[in-house]
Amino acid sequence: MAEVILTDVSKSFAADVALENVSMTVPNGSFVVLLGPTGAGKTTILRMVSGLDQPDQGAISIGGRDTAGLTPAQRDVAMVFQQYSLYPHLTVRQNLEFPLKSPILRTPQAEIDRKVGEVAEILQISHKLGNKATALSGGEMQRVSIGRALVRNPAVYLMDEPLSSLDAKLRSDLRIEIKSIQADSGATLLYVTHDQIEAMTMATHVGVLDNGKLVQFGSPREIYENPVSMYAASRLGQPRINLLPADVFAVAPHSATHIGLRPEQIVQGEGEESLVQRVEHLGDQTRLHLMFRSHNLITVTNSHTTLKRGDVVKIRPDKPFYFDANGARLG
Amino acid sequence: MAQIIIENVRKDFGSFNAVKSSSFTVEDGEFFMLLGPSGCGKTTTLRMMAGLELPTSGEIYIDGEEVGQKPASQRDIAFVFQMFALYPHMNVGKNISYPLLSQGMPKAQVKKKVHEIAEILGITEILNKPVGSLSGGDRQRVALGRAIVRDPKAFFMDEPLGALDAEFREHMSEELRALHDRIGATTVYVTHDQLEAMQMGDKIVVMNHGSIEQFGVPQDIYDWPASKFVAQFLGSPPMNLLEFNGMVDIGAKQVRMGDITMDIPPSLEGANGALSFGIRPEHVKLDDSARYRGRVKAVEYLGTTQIVLLDTPNGVLKARLPSSDPVTIGATTGMIFDPRTITLFDSQTGKALRSQANQGVLTHG
């Protein structure tokens, strides 16, 4: 349990600037998700907190202690990688016990058994405890490597896309499990992903990264409902926010170049005519692909809509976002 | 362009029965999805349709001709794999023209055809580039180009987007579907991703353990699943199944769950014993005056909507509500279920009980 503070952290790899003056506080007991596309700097932050990399500039503290010069072991962090790393010659049980068997910890065997049993249960691998790690499927191996972090009680958990190689059903089960483990134990968790569903559903705070810069930090709801920029607005929301020329519907505020419309910011049945190009039934909802004054637009409608390709739907913006030429949000 | 009919097709590998006797029809020009978890037999089914595996028994008709025991080369189809195999030493144009040149098509005609395809796929600019320098999306487009260029009777695709990340996959699936709408070729597509199947398919076959669970139009299957398996495989989150012991008579418009009576679509089948009450998350409303009660366990924020997890007397239930609805974790509340949308299942067989609401979909499929 610890707070993690990054102060003006920068990092370059040769000529590539990976991070630029990132300052961020991961509050004690929070679940912080770093969100951004490949190359945004998410993993670099995680590796520097873990001690696998050192910042060029700036400071990182964990639980009030400056980490400069500390090895990964001294930092008391547990890391889960995208590519699982298990001991292939050991069984699942031995892999899970391994972190607890460290001579420094001297965990009693009964305590080890209890912990391993509990974690195996949560991750649905109880029936595989006697198997060799190499006899598992990819999804099972990843659950074991998450389990190996969970059996410890570190100051901070660091996870780098731990669910990206799992299938959809397991991913959605584990999202809820990881979230509830974190909430129940009060652990501090720093989590990297490019999957917006993971960010939305698990995070207490989301850090949006763009090319090595932290552009917004807040709750998922804050970022979704009050994005600071076109970039941040595009990170969350399915279907993606529609970005059109600012004056396509009506006169726009001065200096606005783009209007941003999420599905709930488009009123249907009043306003101006648009043409239905495709109707996509997703089950719980239906997506309408619309053409409005030669711009493509996607919105959501009732799952049993009778609309079809070629129909006309009237639409009107409702409390839209406006952005300037730099992509910044206008008040 | 072709209709494909599968009749009583079965496949055994030694003593393992990979596909149980299966029948379905892919209509001309359809975008047809084979959906199921890994190991369900969907890829084996596709490979039999393509001629990469021969069925142990049964018939496969492409355009009226029985081709079940013919190899792929005699079926005039094109296959797109998950890992797009391009010739690394050739440029984009040569990769696309290769199938035509090897068929002996005159060069001038090949050139015209390749340009036409490149236009459709939006890759005219990169025709002279080596394939090694391309992005994942462009490589995929080139692989598609090579499949399309021959004008085959049908396309077969085995998780062609499986290796791409979420954002890009969504983009490519839109592009693939738009491409299909332009050229209108019969396409059979294997996926384990239910959203991809819903989004792209005109029809879906849902498979499990080598058998067909259900076959039909995506929205119909979503609304009226034939089995608990389908109810839980489609939808994110899937259909809620509240387990209870009860009795339904033919013609019943209500069912008793514990001491609460729930409205249901008029039943056409009687059942007694372990039943499941199926309700989709978006058809649940919270209403404090309702008699069926639960406790809010967790909330997942999704932007437009939120998923609320509730502990109920019959297990955990998920409700999809507008994000603007206030919900308090730990609070006890009542739930209302839209009675028109309910499916009851026999828990023993896992099959849906027929009702006036679902009989059209179930007898058709």
- Anisotropy-based shape of chain A: globular
Helical percentage of chain B: 25-40%
Oligomer: heterodimer
> Structural class of chain A, please?
alpha+beta
**Intertermini distance of chain B:** 24 Å
How many beta-strand segments of chain B?
20
Strand content of chain B: 25-35%
**CA distance, first residue to last residue of chain A:** 38 Å
CATH architecture of the largest domain in chain B: 3-Layer(aba) Sandwich
Task: Specify the helix fraction band of chain A.
Answer: 25-40%
What string, H for helix and E for strand, traces the elements of chain B in order? Answer: EEEHEEEHHHEHEHEEHHEEEEEEEEEEH
**Biggest interface in this structure?**
A-B, 36 and 34 residues
Biggest sheet overview of chain A:
6 strands, mixed
Would you kindly provide a written description of the structure presented here, covering whatever features stand out?
Chain B: This is ABC transporter, ATP-binding protein. Chain B: Keywords: ATP-binding, Cell membrane, Membrane, Nucleotide-binding, Translocase, Transport. The complex is a heterodimer of chains A (331) and B (365). Chain A has helices at residues 42-50, 72-75, 92-97, 109-122, 138-150, 168-185, 196-202, 220-225, 230-235; strands spanning 4-13, 16-26, 31-35, 57-62, 65-66, 77-80, 156-160, 188-193, 205-210, 213-218, 242-245, 258-261, 266-281, 286-292, 295-301, 312-317, 321-323, 329-330. Chain A is of the alpha+beta class and 331 residues long. Chain A has two domains: 4-234, Rossmann fold, CATH 3.40.50; 239-330, Beta Barrel (OB fold (Dihydrolipoamide Acetyltransferase, E2P)), CATH 2.40.50.140. In chain A, the strands form four sheets. Chain A has a six-stranded mixed β-sheet with strand order 6-7-8-3-9-10, sandwiched between helices. In chain B, 43% of the residues are buried. A six-stranded mixed β-sheet of chain B has the order 6-7-8-3-9-10, sandwiched between helices. Chain B has a five-stranded antiparallel β-sheet with strand order 15-19-16-17-18, with no helix packed on it. Chain B has helices at residues 42-50, 92-103, 107-121, 136-148, 166-183, 194-200, 218-223, 228-233, 359-364; strands at 4-13, 16-26, 31-35, 57-62, 65-66, 77-80, 154-158, 186-191, 203-208, 211-216, 240-248, 254-257, 260-263, 271-279, 284-286, 293-301, 305-312, 315-322, 332-337, 343-346. Helices cover 25% and strands 34% of the residues of chain B. In chain B, helix 2 packs across helix 3 (107-121) and helix 2 (92-103) packs parallel to helix 4 (136-148). Chain B starts with a strand and ends with a helix. The A-B interface holds A 37-38, 164, 167-169, 172, 175-176, 179-180, 194-197, 200-201, 220-221, 224, 236-238, 262-264, 278, 280-285, 300, 303-304 and B 37-38, 165-167, 177, 181, 192-195, 198-199, 218-219, 222-223, 234-237, 280-282, 298, 300-304, 307, 309, 320, 323.
